[in-house]
Amino acid sequence: MTPPEAPVDGTDQPGETPPAASVCAPVRLTVLQNRSDFLKAARARRQGTASMMVQARRREPGEAEGIRVGFTCSKKVGNAVARNRAKRRLREAARAVLPGEGRDGWDYVLIGKAHATAERPFKALLDDLRYALSKLHGDRR
Questions:
Q1: 27-135 fold
Q2: Does pLDDT of 36 surpass 50?
Q3: Is this model's pTM higher than 0.90 or not?
């Protein structure tokens, strides 16, 4: 049985209903979960900013597809509430920046910093991630 406020079919809705999925296919971010992937990223390039440390590595061909990203915060960031808040902010920053600035075939690990990640204004957090990506993907001579 459906709840009383749920429409039986699409005709009950005024106007045109939006599509269930976006018409344009956004870049999908896959979350790193295996420790080995985090360790591989730790041995690769890294760039620090005021609010986070970003580690990045180019994957081997055929290893995985798309952009993969991981998040971590040590106990230096604070208690569980503070670490989770910092990781939530890093996740949102990654969702906003990586589809446009990240590169396909790369793994990124965003590491929160004590006090800075949770307290920095969100726009500055986004700018920090963009800066780190530009440095990581720039020419290294």
A1: Ribosomal Protein S5; domain 2 (3.30.230)
A2: yes
A3: no
